[in-house]
Amino acid sequence: MTDLNLSSNKKDVAAVWPDGWYLYENGKLNGPLSADHAFSLTPESEDGSPRLVSRKGFTQWYPLQDFATLYRLSETMAQKVSAASVSASEHKSKPAVKTKQVGPTTILAKSIPPQSSNSALRRAVADAAASSVAPQSPVPRAISKVAVEQEYYLARSRLALGQLRNPWALAGGSWLLSFGLYWSVWFVSVYKEIERHTQNAVPAPKWLKLTAFASMLPLLNVWPTYRLACQIREMERQNKYTYMNPQLVLLASLLPPIAMFYLQSGLNRHWTLHAKHLILKRRADADAAASGGA
Q1: Contact at 8 Å (CB) between 36 and 98?
Q2: In this structure, which of 15, 139, 173, 254 has its CB flanked by the most CB atoms within 10 Å?
Q3: At 119, phi and psi to the nearest 5?
Q4: Average pLDDT, stretch 166-183?
């Protein structure tokens, strides 16, 4: 009898929590997963970063821990509802209560049929979710570097963000080890990233590869490098801020590794600012929802 109850409880919980959950951790996306599989995992991955879950129809990612708590609560509710249904069935099997004469009116005892365990469970879970605190933001109050990078990789394709590159590795490794040849590869890649991100609002030069080759030659590299800095600043202005200083890049172009370091730092700043903006927007939406619910 106990095994049948457990099986029935699992079916009721599965009906409330359908499959199709997606899990995000360490820059990787897994799914679709069943609810039981997804919410049985630990709330944090091996490196300590929070696991996030979402599904079709959701507008954002949520911490696994928040939904796992509700899932476990629904299992508890299912057991209680099942026990209540069994108790109601036993009570129904007892002899009917005799009619009681009160004055001229006869009151008949009515036996209320027990609700189905599935519908009762849905109502119990809905009440528990409504009374619980709104899901926490998957990002701590102090925006950490790990949280920003995680958000960056989530939004990279959707916002057409460029690649994050280590400025020290570019200037101190790639440029020197390749004797400056890597500059042209990086130059073309950066221009294409800007053009794609701005949807051609900041177009690449018509003769991009020829410009990239010219930027490798001493003295001739001054003008192409300066123009690249101007393109980055124009991209920044579209987001209502300016960080890049083309005049400073003009001077730094006499030492290409320094110019490369400064330009890539500005690009990294722009890509990660998009990620920070998404974090702050989600945080503001969560605060608004919490204050509205209160």
Answers
A1: no
A2: 139
A3: -65, -35
A4: 82
